[in-house]
Design a protein that fits this description.
Elements: H1 2-20, H2 28-49, H3 55-72, H4 74-88, H5 102-115, H6 118-130, H7 134-154, H8 161-179, H9 185-206, H10 223-231
Helix pairs in contact: 1-7, 1-8, 2-7, 2-9, 3-9, 4-5, 5-7, 5-8, 6-7, 6-8, 6-9, 9-10
Length: 232
């Protein structure tokens, strides 16, 4: 569990630094930094999605995942969780002065960004099966930088995404030995591609082009696992 623990701690520390120190930068920089981060996230997402070698499966996964996610309405439940944490902690923190729910939005956006993608999946599996934490350590550096920027513009909710990161990656670490027989290289690759494409959606949200309920796309990550396992 060393990898998930380090990843979560780095996110917390960097988020606190960003919220209490970096946020003191002039207000005019906030929007610019957010949009620059959006471009970077789009690049990371698209680059990660390019590992896909089964385009029809990727499209089917995104569409099927969108339908399932909308039925469950994961986005709504994650926002409720963020608002619940905000209320319980007695916080009404606004990372963005024009947004009443920046805590929950920061929590949701950061949780999805840090929990999806190839590094989270492959790194956690490698950590659980081999005790090799190198990928998760590298991911911690990337997450730390992003949480520093995000918390400065979106608020303290970003720090609480560390809870989701620890639970998500920790669960994969613990479950990897049990399901290792079913996690082939093809499955991991296609799951990572779907997760990366969802990350690109977060980038578009940062650019404020058109809001995408990226949380409702999360089931798409597991469609390749189900489909390829059935075929096998």
């Amino acid at each position: 569990m060393l990898g998930p623990i380090v990843n979560a701690l780095v996110i917390i520390v960097c988020s606190l630094i960003g919220f209490f120190l970096v946020k003191k930068i002039p207000v005019r920089f906030e929007d610019h930094i957010k949009k620059a981060s959006g471009l970077a996230v789009i690049f990371v997402g698209i680059k990660g999605a390019m590992v896909n070698q089964n385009m029809p499966l990727l499209i089917m996964s995104i569409l099927t995942g969108a339908v399932l996610g909308e039925i469950i309405d994961i986005d709504k439940w994650m926002k409720r969780l963020g608002l619940w944490a905000e209320k319980k902690l007695g916080m009404n923190v606004k990372g963005n002065k024009s947004d009443e729910h920046s805590f929950s939005k920061g929590f949701v956006a950061a949780s999805i960004l840090f929990c999806t993608g190839s590094m989270a999946i492959v790194g956690s599996i490698q950590s659980g099966l081999q005790g090799n934490h190198e990928i998760l350590f590298a991911k911690s550096i990337l997450d730390g930088f992003m949480s520093l920027v995000f918390s400065a513009s979106m608020g303290i909710g970003v720090a609480f995404s560390a809870v989701c990161v620890f639970i998500y990656q920790g669960a994969i670490v613990l479950a990897s030995q049990i399901v290792s027989v079913y996690l082939t290289e093809d499955i991991i690759r296609e799951m990572s591609a779907a997760g990366s494409l969802i990350i690109a959606g977060i980038g578009f949200n940062f650019l404020e082009i058109k809001e995408i309920k990226v949380a409702n796309l999360l089931p798409a990550i597991f469609i390749p696992w189900i489909w390829l396992s059935l075929i096998a």
